[in-house]
Amino acid sequence: MSVKGGRGTVEEWFRRRGLPLVVRRKVVGAALLQRSTPLLVFLLALDPILSVLARFTDVPQAEFDSRVANSGYVVALLGLTAAALIVPVFLGWLVAWIMRRASKGVNLVFALVVVLFSIIGLPALEHATGLRELLAPTVGINALTVLAVLAFVYTGLGSILAWALRAAMRQFRLVGQLTSRALPLLMLVVLFSFFAAEMWQMAGSLPRWRMWAVVAFLIALGVLFLSAITSDELRELGRSRRDNGVVTHLAGTPLDGLVPEEGLGQPHRVRFTERANLVLVFFFAQALQIAVFGMLVFGFFLVFGALSVTPEVAKAWSTHDLSRGELFGLHLPVSNELVQVSLFLSVFSALYFAATMTTDPVYRKSFFDPLIADMRVSLAAREVYLARWGDEIRHRHADNR
Question: For every residue of the chain, which 3-state class applies, written as one string?
Fold first, then answer.
């Protein structure tokens, strides 16, 4: 029976799948610092881009309107926005990829450099370039951020967050599938609402804080629905892991070939922390699909509304003068009324997609069943991991008492 990986390789595989609480060994010392480095690099790249973007858009209304008329300004604004979404994720992934292949000594030195630059170097650089006015508060905030990242990694939340970012990138590969299969049918449902004057009156008259309250209410409904679905599916998977055929799910994993000769024996009881980790990962996997779909719908309505609804028509529908569009403090080259309508319809559409993804056979096969298959692999791998190294783990815990 061929052995594909030792215990360390298997535990790293679990962490990369967002399941650090399945692993029965804590990350401490230099390993903790090194595992925190990709997330620190992500934050290092994101901070200056957001500072430049805020400086780019924090201008009076009249000046912003004149700048939007310049196509070069619009292109630069879109470029900065795209950079804020892509560059930090790419650099974090690149650093993680490089560190997996570098020696421990090189990784430790690089991690120390990143920590020092995060606390001292970046605040000093931003202060020198005028992006930050006060140096000492920024140093303190960055030091607390580094400590928070280390705590994230120590508790396992860092692995879950890293997995979530990788999963988000994988979900963007499904944009074509989402656009071709889910978006057209949904447009038939909500497109008429977009052209309803009552929709513009309702959404356009709400202050932004109240619109966010409406969005939060709809998201809460979606969370309750996903929580119920997740609980039911994991309960069913828990019953299926009693089937000895789970070994077939391990092909291509580090646990392929690691099944003990005497077999797996009785299924191991899932601890509360493990169940919470499994539920969180499964929930995030669904939520990311839904979030990507919601962003697609939001972008569609922004572009579609800018092309098809003139300012005069939007003013007539909303029954008041249009105001400047803004989202998360960033000024947009569209009206605030269009932003509000697009935001409401995108969240409603995401809620509709969440329901159909698990109940409609076509949607379930395309978007939900792959998540179930992935979770089945994780549960099968856990059984083999505990069957092979369970005695070693128990003896070590007994020695530490």
Answer: CCCCCCHHHHHHHHHHCCCHHHCCCCCCHHHHHHHHHHHHHHHHHHHHHHHHHHHHHCCCHHHHHHHHCCHHHHHHHHHHHHHHHHHHHHHHHHHHHHHCCCCHHHHHHHHHHHHHHHHHHHHHHHHHHCCCCCCHHHHHHHHHHHHHHHHHHHHCHHHHHHHHHHHHHHHHCCHHHHHHHHHHHHHHHHHHHHCCHHHHHHHHHCCHHHHHHHHHHHHHHHHHHHHHHHHHHHHHHHHHCCCHHHHHHHCCCCCCCCCCCCCCCCCCCCCHHHHHHHHHHHHHHHHHHHHHHHHHHHHHHHHHHHHHCCHHHHHHHHCCCCCEEEECCEEEEEEHHHHHHHHHHHHHHHHHHHHHHHHCHHHHHHHHHHHHHHHHHHHHHHHHHHHHHHHHHHHHHHHCC
Residues 146 and 235 in one domain: no
Domain of 396, in residue numbers: 175-401
Total number of domains in the chain: 2
Asked if 223 and 138 sit in the same domain, the reply is no
Residue 147 and residue 199 in one domain: no
In a domain, 103, yes or no: yes
pTM of the model: 0.66
Above 70 in pLDDT, residue 319? Answer: yes
| Chosen domain end from 102, 127, 155 | 155
Phi, psi at 323, each rounded to 5°: -115, 170
pLDDT digits (tens, 9 = 90+) for 337-385: 888 899 999 998 888 888 877 777 777 777 777 778 888 888 878 877 8
What contacts 94, CB < 8 A, 6 or more positions away? Answer: none
Residue 163 placed within a domain: no
- The answer as to whether 21 is a domain residue is no
